[in-house]
Design a protein that fits this description.
With 222 residues, the protein is of the alpha+beta class. It contains five helices and 13 strands.
């Protein structure tokens, strides 16, 4: 590389660095609904319908980013909220976006705190095929009740077993001449899991991490 190449490299570096190979992740979008109740705001949660993935768990509205349908993740989050909660699009006001959350399972999640201009839960018409119920919890409850924290062990496996019970080399260590110990599972980093034991339900995983991020930002001075 000569001086011209070095200059070209510098000019092509991203002005706003993002996530390398983001397109290889399963990209998802989440809306974090905030509803004014009396003198304060509450998070709006939904309990997922039993017949869908992660049924019975507590989440915010959200789902996959659909390239042919959504211009960006912001619009995907709004679309999912409209579909799942039955709220009108014009009732949603996006406040901004949190940092992208990367799941160790290969999911990239962009989340958007937003206010819902509704008087109460009766203004919603949730899709019963996806949402069993909805409920509110004051943001102040989460400010006053820190989550439990657990750390899970992650493991990287260079060999997997297919549907027929046959071992498949995902990384041909011997063929590539890599050190032999890479042919066996090796440890990954610890994965931190937040859990809130609220008066209404246990809220954990990605949803709890998003809550914790919101609460952390609330505590920062402007």
């Amino acid at each position: 590389m000569d001086e011209y190449g070095l200059k070209r490299l510098a000019n092509n570096l991203p002005r706003h660095p993002g996530i390398l190979d983001k397109e290889r992740y399963l990209n998802a979008a989440v809306l974090i609904p905030l509803v004014k109740t009396a003198a304060e705001f509450s998070f709006l949660f939904q309990k997922r319908a039993v017949g869908i993935r992660q049924g019975g768990e507590i989440s915010f509205p959200g789902g996959h980013f659909e390239p042919g349908q959504d211009p960006d993740c912001r619009e995907a989050a709004i679309r999912e909220a409209v579909e799942e909660l039955g709220v009108k699009r014009e009732k949603i006001s996006i406040l901004g976006r949190l940092d992208t959350y990367l799941s160790p399972r290969g999911i990239s999640i962009d989340s958007f705190p937003a206010t819902l201009d509704i008087q109460g839960l009766d203004d919603l018409c949730p899709d019963s095929t996806e949402v069993e119920s909805v409920f509110l919890l004051p943001v102040s409850w989460f400010e006053n009740n820190p989550p439990l924290e657990y750390n899970l062990d992650l493991e990287i496996k260079p060999v997997c077993t297919d549907d027929n019970g046959k071992e498949v080399d995902m990384l041909p260590v011997g063929e590539l001449g890599l050190p032999p110990h890479y042919a066996k599972p090796w440890p990954g980093l610890k994965h931190r899991v937040f859990v809130y034991r609220t008066p209404k339900a246990v809220i954990w995983g990605i949803t709890a991490s998003l809550i914790q991020d919101v609460i952390t930002r609330l505590r920062k001075s402007s």
